[in-house]
Amino acid sequence: MSKSFICIVCPVGCHIDVDDNGNITGNRCKRGLEYVKTELTAPKRIITTTAKTIFKDIPRVSVKTDIAVPKELIYKIMDEINATVIDKPMKIGDVLIENVLDTGANIILTKSCQIQGVV
Amino acid sequence: MRKEIIVVGGGASGLAAALAAKKEGRDVLLIEREDRLGGILNQCIHNGFGLQVFKEEYTGPEYADKYIQEFLQSDIPYYLDTTVTNVDKLDDGFEITFSSTKTGMKKIQADALIMSTGCYERTRGSIIMPGDRPYGVITAGSAQRYLNIDGYMVGKNVFILGSGDIGLIMARRMHLEGANVLGVAELMPYSNGLTRNIVQCLNDFDIPLFLSHTVTQVNANKNQRLESIIIQQVDKSFKPIEGTEKKFEVDTLLLSIGLIPDITLLDNLEVEKDNRTKSVKINQSYQTSVPGIFICGNSLQVHDLVDNVSLESERAGKCASKYVLSKKIERKTVNIIAGNNLLFVTPHYIDFASEAKNVVFQFRSKTKIAKSMLKISQKDNEIKSKRINYVVPAEMESISIPLEEFNDLDDVVLDLEVL
Amino acid sequence: MYDYVVIGAGIVGSFIARELSKYDLKALVVEKENDVANVQTLANSAILHSGHNPKPNTLKSRLCLLGNKMYNDVEKELNIQILRSGAFVVAHGESEEKQLAELVETTKQNNVTEYELLSYEEAVKTEPNLAKSVTQVLSLPTTGVIYPWEVAFACMENAIVNGVEFRKNAEVTNLIKDSGTFKITINDKDIVESKYVINATGVNTDDIAEMLEKHVDFKITPRKGEYFVLDKRVKGFVNHVLYPLPTNKGKGVLLTPQVHGNILVGPDSKFVDDKYRTDNTNSGLGYVKENASLLADNIPFNQIIRSFAGIRATSTKEDFIIEESKEIKGLYHTAGIDSPGLTAAPAIAEYLVNEIMMVQDKYDTSKDFDPIRKKLPEFHSLPEEKQRELIKQDSRYANIICKCEKITEKEIVDAINGPLGSNSIKGIKKRTRAGAGLCQGGYCEEKVYKLIARETNSSPLDIVYDSQKSNLFVSETKVKK
């Protein structure tokens, strides 16, 4: 099945096409080729979202995966994060969920939540 | 009470400017109207920040934290939850009125003022969008705050007008939080956001982008809630084309239709304005036409990368510090003019008496140009030319040139020529 | 059992309520919206007309002139703001000057005594942006501008303080008269009984009449008008209300300085089928832009902060309808109240109560009636000394919530908790102007909803923008489905 991509490695933004036989065209440099190969085989993304807390003044705290995770796991990882509640003060960089869904990625806080005011 | 420098605003710009001024040894006070430092970065929980400044990729709150930690360690005094309500010009500086529940109404004098007041979002009111005026038509930034900080969803079925970065980022956020994002419409034939955001926020989740489209009808239900919108393709003069109507049943329309520098605090002062940036004019030291008032960050010009805000504000903080020491206000200036294919350029004039010995030009192109040549000239004298590939309006470009390369007689013109 | 039930809490219903509160009687006002002044009173030109324009010897002519004068007392008693700007009716060239001369005759016949014809040169001295194409001007110095919502709130607040009851979100769904008593069904549920009923429902006056009358002899033919609002930074661009010459469609597109410094541009005038459809159209707003430029040069359209549309409750009869129903004794109509209804409102109320209903013959005057409505401080407009004093009394005056209009936490809390308090974002905006400025609530809406939640002890999920069902949020994030 043919597919098209916009390369995001640099600002040029090449439109790269892949035909049914796997031929890649439209890239102007090697990095574009690598980008499309990864996108075709194992696309990965960093997830950034929020997690619920019990703190009235900070009802949500921003979190992220510390490394990129397989794209197809985005929704499942969102479910994992959504099912977690922060119930104690934590600092930026602290791990909320370790090795989420065996991806090797941790869910870490991108902001401290240390304000008093428990509901 | 008197300070050498007062910084208004504790976001990315204010933090960097205050830190820079403090490093120059100045006596600084920072005033922030929200209950926390970091400004808009607090709600920009996505990543992509810091590649220039820290050579690493951070989320907004992480990027802010770097500066906040340094700021807290620097012992610069600051007020939170405090609004500056007035700025008066004195013979030898300024008097600022500020107000908060803790302090009441207070006045403080300063030699110089750095405006790091950020920007506000264009609303539905400033564009003509035919139809009802229901609730559910919300600026993307407001929705982002409600979603990321307060934890509330503004709607279930969402359409987004404007493909600026906030619009794209919100498309992904609303989608990941379970909303049904039906599409993004962009009036221009190209997106106003970064390509990576088109790919990672829209394409990843099969959210369609309608280029050269706009919303031409807004319909409310009985409860004054948005019920549906109609979008239409537009021609080259942005007129809707009949027969291209598409209807979307949505309860929410997010607007990502532009940001406007917030300079309302300068209303009472006669500061020279720039209609293009919708802010004020500055020289190469970020000084406005009122000596002692400096401006930087999104209140000077709306940036696409926070890194540039920090770097620019650092320069402004340094320049303000030098001004406080010398108080030089003799003016020997030439104008800087945005020529061919440029939307705007800052600064607006070069002041040869200023101690800023480099001129950092920042500009945006009017259209997407694949191969272009930037030419900086004074009359027939070409001072610099530089090839720039893939210029787009969404990405601000910059170039730094030593002051000594300019003569103090002729206007400086920047042209972007298509190759 | 009530003596009077007033249906509708627009400016007319509010003035009637206040007029009734001067007597020893039991009165109730019911309003279908979630706030006073939410339909026609919400969206109009806000002008106190001098009375120059209506057809002579009509109720419109008589009550407009009288109403304009009555506002002097209303201003003092209810502490409302009036901008006595005066008005210029402009003429371009000879043929329009002839029409202007005719308008002067009408002005005289309407007993408007203060007027003056000015040349362009004379007029431009006080109106520097007057269009250069203007050749002559009719100056009408008694013309003014009010803040219509404020007037309605003030009347209703004063009426409530003087014993009138008020119910919002109360739609009359049925109305019958049974053995001399009116039975008024509210929201298909409660039934309220009353001796008399006053129909002050603006665009719905014919619908209400039809609930009881077999042959309603008037029909509301709604006319929509579209407007632009310019930011208050344009204050001083025009100093007078600028009118074109009137036509059979009305007073035309105007430029109107507002009480708070904004300038209103509009309206156009279109008959519409739907009483509730206050949408903006390209053609309507385009017409407004085009015609406004006949009044002033270089109008700063780049300062538009909002566009809106309002509905006028024009009826099939030319004049105001202020009368007892011809079929049903004890039912009174105030219908067809389009322009100059805002100006005439206090006079309409007095005329209805004292000349049509003869309330003074039926009930004693109330000994406790207090005509004065105390106005809460508008913090930002006070001198600094007074501001400091207020902050000393209550530190919440030092907390600026709306940055554009400089509205404080204390003012918002008062607007939530006052005698006519509101729990909606729009209600707070109407009372305090929080969110009415340059950023249109982009900054303060979040702070206002949190204050409403705090003061009313409710969840943010229950906070509404306007009507009871216009919730700001549909759900929390991170909740299990």
End-to-end distance of chain B: 57 Å
Mean pLDDT of chain B: 94
Q: What is the name of the CATH class of the largest domain in chain B?
A: Alpha Beta
Mean pLDDT of chain C: 95
CATH topology of the largest domain in chain B: FAD/NAD(P)-binding domain
Largest beta-sheet characterization of chain C:
8 strands, mixed
Helix content of chain B: 10-25%
What's the gyration radius of chain C in Å? 23 Å
Number of strands of chain B: 30
Q: From the alpha-carbon coordinates, what is the Rg of chain B to the nearest angstrom?
A: 22 Å
Give me the secondary-structure category of chain B: alpha/beta
Describe this structure in words.
The complex is a heterotrimer of chains A (119), B (419) and C (481). Chain A is of the alpha+beta class and 119 residues long. Chain A folds into two domains: 3-41, no CATH class; 48-109, CPE0013-like fold, CATH 3.10.530.10. Helices cover 18% and strands 29% of the residues of chain A. In chain A, the strands form three sheets. A five-stranded mixed β-sheet of chain A has the order 8-5-6-10-9. Chain A is elongated, with a radius of gyration of 19 Å. The model of chain A has no long low-confidence stretch (mean pLDDT 89). With 419 residues, chain B is α/β, with parallel strands linked by helices. Chain B folds into three domains: 1-121 and 259-329, FAD/NAD(P)-binding domain (3-Layer(bba) Sandwich), CATH 3.50.50; 123-257, 3-Layer(bba) Sandwich (FAD/NAD(P)-binding domain); 331-419, Immunoglobulin-like (Sandwich), CATH 2.60.40. Chain B is 19% helix and 38% strand. Chain B has helices spanning 12-23, 60-73, 140-150, 165-176, 195-202, 306-326; strands spanning 2-8, 28-31, 47-49, 58-59, 78-79, 83-90, 93-100, 104-115, 119-121, 137-139, 152-153, 157-161, 180-186, 209-211, 213-220, 226-233, 246-248, 252-255, 259-261, 273-274, 279-280, 293-295, 333-338, 342-346, 349-351, 358-365, 369-378, 381-391, 397-402, 412-418. The radius of gyration of chain B is 22 Å and the shape is globular. Chain C has helices at residues 11-20, 59-78, 93-109, 120-126, 148-161, 205-212, 282-292, 341-356, 359-362, 384-393, 409-417, 425-432, 445-455, and strands at 2-7, 27-30, 47-48, 82-83, 87-91, 116-119, 136-140, 144-146, 165-167, 172-178, 181-186, 190-199, 223-230, 241-243, 254-257, 263-266, 270-271, 304-312, 321-324, 331-335, 400-402, 407-408, 475-476. Helix content of chain C is 30%, strand content 21%. Chain C has 481 residues and is of the alpha+beta class. Chain C has three domains: 2-41 and 149-220 and 316-361, FAD/NAD(P)-binding domain (3-Layer(bba) Sandwich), CATH 3.50.50.60; 87-141 and 222-311, D-Amino Acid Oxidase, subunit A, domain 2 (D-Amino Acid Oxidase, Chain A, domain 2, 2-Layer Sandwich), CATH 3.30.9; 379-462, BFD-like [2Fe-2S]-binding domain (Arc Repressor Mutant, subunit A). Chains in contact: A-B, A-C, B-C. At the B-C interface, helix 3 and strand 11 of B face strand 18, helix 10 and strand 23 of C. Strand 11 of chain B pairs antiparallel with strand 23 (475-476) of chain C.
